[in-house]
Specification:
This protein is of the alpha/beta class. It contains 8 helices and 12 strands.
Length: 289
Amino acid sequence: MELPVVEQEHLLGVPGPVGKDRLFARPQRGNHESVTNSGANGQGSTQVTKEFADLIPSANAPLIELQKVSKTYRMGTLEVKALQEIDLTIEHGEYVAIMGQSGSGKSTLMHILGCLDIPTSGIYRLGGIDVSKMGESELAEVRNRRIGFVFQQFHLLPRLPAWKNVELPLLYAGERDHAHRRQRAEEALASVGLSERATHRPTELSGGQQQRVAIARALVTNPSIVLADEPTGNLASTQADEIMGIFESLHTEGRTVVIITHEPDIATRAHRLVRIKDGLVIDDEALVK
């Protein structure tokens, strides 16, 4: 079923409540000078306005650092503590799985890591920068350029071919060169093995192929972090294995990959496993490969 126009706009980043609808939000820019960022993983360069130049991650700081991060939701008189004083550090280039059952707080943690939500208390530093000090435009810049999101639901627009779905983050980042957007979209599709499906619509693709399109969309802005929430949840085992192979390749290329999952066989594909239960980190171990 095709999304209503309003829902499509929200998904693509038209301003609205914090959530998946803001993933590709276009930063609000004036006539700001541009500077070049060579990229945290050394893969090409991106143009960043001078206003946001300080968002380039510091190589001397952990990429992700949470200190005593808590998140409490209030529903009337009821308080739900989704996260309780989480301490977590993820270095540049790590491949980490965060595992927990439904209600453990793992999705809340993912939303905070992805700057889709903010902690009730505690400090979250991204590349050494305190996220609480960022304004909405800066947060949008981070979500658009620094973090590539992959979800269990593919969130592809059904009327658009694969390459047009992939180019959307570039479009909402203000990239006006149509030919350049298409070139980068096709390169991203090629990186996940879908060159021959670039003109196919989502309804003409298998579930595994649709997820690969979603991964290509996450990669098209050359982010330093790939953040995946239950990325194999809707896939058969063979398709899930293919998708996990792509994440392994991204890690090998030097990207930081964080997988959120409840499945042990998926979690143990990572190189580090963080277990979460009742909003608490109960275990954090390196996995021998």
